[in-house]
Description:
By secondary structure, the protein is of the alpha+beta class. The chain has helices at 4-27, 34-61, 83-92, 151-162, 171-175, 181-186, 194-203, 225-228, 239-245, 299-307, 322-329, 361-369, 373-381, 411-420, 441-458, 469-478, 496-499, 516-527, 531-548, and strands at residues 63-67, 97-99, 106-108, 111-116, 122-127, 132-137, 142-148, 206-210, 213-217, 256-257, 261-267, 271-276, 290-294, 338-351, 384-386, 433-438, 462-467, 483-489, 552-563, 568-569, 585-586.
Amino acid sequence: MLPLSRMRRLTADRRRLTADCRPLIAVHRSLFTAPARFFCICLLTSILALTACRSAAQTIARELRLNLGGEPATLDPALATDPESQQVIRMILLSLVDTDPATGAPQHALATSWAVSPDGLIWEFKLRGDALWVRYNPANDRVEQKRAVTASDVVYSVRRVFDPRVSSGFASTFASLLRGAEQLRAADPRKTSDATFEQLFAALGVQAMDDATVRFTLTRPASYFPSIVSAWLVRTQPRETIEENGVVWTEPGKIWTNGPYVLERWSHGREIVLKKNDAWYDAGAVRIARIRLAMIPDSATALEQYRNGNLDSLDPRGGLSADAVDHLREDPVLNKHLQIVPSLCSHYYGFNTTKAPFNELLVRKAFTAALDRETLTTSVVKLGEPARWFARSGLYASLDISDTLGIPFNANQAREYLRQAGYDGRVKRLPIITLGVNSNETHEQIAETVAQMWKNNLNVEVRVNKLDWKNYLLQLRDDPPHIFRLGYCAYYPDAANFGSVFKSKSPDNFTRWSVSAFDQAIDAAAREVDIGRRRAFYRAAEKILVEDNAVITPLWWSSRASLTRPSVERTYAIVDGYERLETWGFR
Length: 587
């Protein structure tokens, strides 16, 4: 049914068109027989009907139907740990800095500019003056403006993340970087008075210098700090409604938001509906009026919904399995909808450098050179790219994909490395090697494939030992096997995410390897603001890790596959939970 105003316009258009025809009919009445006049009327009616249908279709097309993949655990930034929650949070709540979905480069959001002190420890962000807190009122379907977003909102949000009474799951990720954060997190809520908490808050390295300026004080230089404050964790949180509503502050009708969309409806277990926030400072650039996020965890079910025309894309969280991709490539229609894009996860085998024979560099190089990543990725992994170093290309300040760094597959060179190490296969033979993996069908299949490669190329027996995830982590902590499988995924799109994993005192470094030159390169990159020089430092660190010392053998960089209708104009985010849906539209 068309609105009354639209019907009136169509009626006026019809009268005007009829009036325009009358002189023609009067002059050439002899030419307009009854059938001809009937045809003219039908033609006019058809044109008007098509116009009306086109208008209705355009209205419907403003609604985008996507798959979130599951129920968000929470829409509270301080508590969110899952990508489903993170994706919705970034659509409704502002951060100081946003990131380019394709490159990870920092972009303006709540902050219009930022600067760092010469020693790299103090960061100041200047805030825009036209960002507003709003509340969607389901009773009248209106977005109600509340007040301006200020620097005090940023301070409150950061304090809340590190407040032990809130119990943020990801606070430990950044706590060592912000002055006073570890001390605040260490406070026992049962033994700490409100007055002491206020003192700890005051000592925390975040201050509102005025309504439009927020200052952070760090414990060490971090040139990647703008990428950190782009994360879901430190998105602005509305103090008034949190204090008024407690744990249910994120429900529709209660939540205050300040992003490109408001939370219109949350049908738990079924869907989330987001509505365009017309009060957002850049609302004119938002082309989708409403987004429906289905919660379909099973990829096969999501694919069926897409085939039936009930979804416009399987994204932002509804990926496809490798087997499904194989079938879709043969589909003459859906293969045009298929897109395979990078995902910022790296998979590798690490060597226990304290356990013979992998305490010998040449042995580590031999095992790396004897592994055919191209075949492994093509035949077993299927969704991914062969990795040549640790931090995949595509991260901000990471290596370019064209770089030739790393030890390439070369079976003859691998055998030569072993010979140089003294393993001639007769007098001195390699012992039985243990390769540890966590219990997972894919990882076990990959391990068996790699073990056979090493058997063929190095004439060595490799036994695959699998454990459940909990016990596997305990083994890595207490006594890592000769070789172990792990992966690492970025939670903010910067090479710094990966750089610290293999530093000397890193809790994630199970190789038991330590080289000061590597630590120094990572620290130098953290101090450097210029992206070109940062990239050079990270390249130097990667060369030490994967080539000069061969501490790990990179396996593959993840990719993800999805379907999106050709009518949808979109971007592809390199980090899960970072899709910029406000930039999407219809062609």
